[in-house]
Amino acid sequence: MAGIFDLLREGEQPDGLSPRSDPPRAGSQNGGWLPALQRFFTTSLEDVYKGKYGIDSRMPTLSENVAVGIGSGLKALGAPKYFAEDFGRRTRDLLEWITPFGTLTAKEESARAAERGDILTAMLSGAGLIPNLGRAAGKVGDAVAKTFRHPISLTKLKRPLEEMNAIYSNERILKPDEIIWPERLQGGIIIPAVGDRTIAGKELAGINGYRFEQPVNLQGGFKLMRDNPDVWASEAGALSRLSDRIDWAGQAGVPVYLMYTSMGPRSLDYSRMMTEAIREQMKLAPVTKLAKTSFDADMRLRYPDFPGVDNLTDQWMAKPGDARTYLAQLMAQDRFQKLGFPDIASTRYALTEPELLNRLSGASGSAIAQVFPGAGINTKPLVPHPTYNATLPGIYLGSFMKPIPREIMFPNWAATRPVRENRAYADRSMLLGNVWQFADQQWLERIMNFLRSPEGQKYGIGGAVAAGLLTQEQAQQFFGLREGHPEGADGTSVNPET
User: Fold this and answer.
1) N or C terminus: which one in the chain shows less Cβ crowding within 10 Å?
2) Spans of all domains in the chain
């Protein structure tokens, strides 16, 4: 085996391997393990770190080829798909730990990391001069750079947040958005519309590369106000209580405004959209009949009429949503995730509005509507909602340039809450309580002071300018931003929070 100084020497590109080359075909001159071994010993780490050979997802690594080869062989012999693929991965890992094969895979993983600009992982993987050390170190580098803990899941993420992805289709034209300045609401009464963080205005067509047989229509969250002729939706009973509060506020003879205020990151489990996304993924999920039987039994302990995870009918989903919530929460448990059930964290990610993904519950102001006392509710809406059976009429006005914490937006409510209160209790109070706020001069000054503060500025002014929702002149006039700079007058960054 080559020594460390041999591997660190400068080398020339081996014959037959060109930048961005396609994977070698079976039977080709470059295929097989011997040419791969020769290329390994004639390639310098300097060239690898520069990404000279352009190794990317179109060229499988030796490690991946071994895993796929073993899995394909087992499937050809009649083994179940999930067993064959898992056995292939496990055999590959074993080879990497007990043979010099680990050196080869570490080399290729180092090149991949360098190509995508992940220098830390590239350097750590390059330590594979000693068999297996590089692979172990490379995994440490990956862990440093990736997110495996996030509020969308109570457990460690099955897939890092950075690798989650979703496919959307059939995007609809929404009502035009407009930046609302706080002064516009002054003199009125604001009532929170507490809702989940789901997306509206398009269809979810797939998750993590898997395309749905039937896309899921997305009509939730704050963009519902722009996607529906009405401005809010809920169960008829809950919406009637909200309508009563609007009627009560209207007795003051001032305008009444409805302001979207976000629920927690897992609140969307209640929505029918979540259950429909689970149903689509179950069609090809690598779950055994025994595992499904176990899941169904656990569901029926609480909901005896549960039809089974393979029979999530529209009729069952139309029932009250507590069972839908429990379905998602039960499936999210590690014991079922390990059995191949759909990745619930990735599903929540796919259903969540990106700008709310990393926000605390109670983010307010992403959508604002004017509502009218005496208007009542629509139990036969023009555009029915997939989860709820009633809608609330009103006029969509626009949004604040960034979400504002509920403690700032509703200071009278915040003053009634205990110090260091559990956030879940505060969420429930905001959802079920008679919360309202008179937008007087004191409220306006509080909002303006927050927006002008470094904390307020960093959240999204630059993003609003970049998106065309706010002109540079407006930002300069209102926030004192220096012309041509995405920063505050004092140099404080105002780029959107990521």
Assistant:
1) C
2) 4-59+99-145, 158-441, 453-498
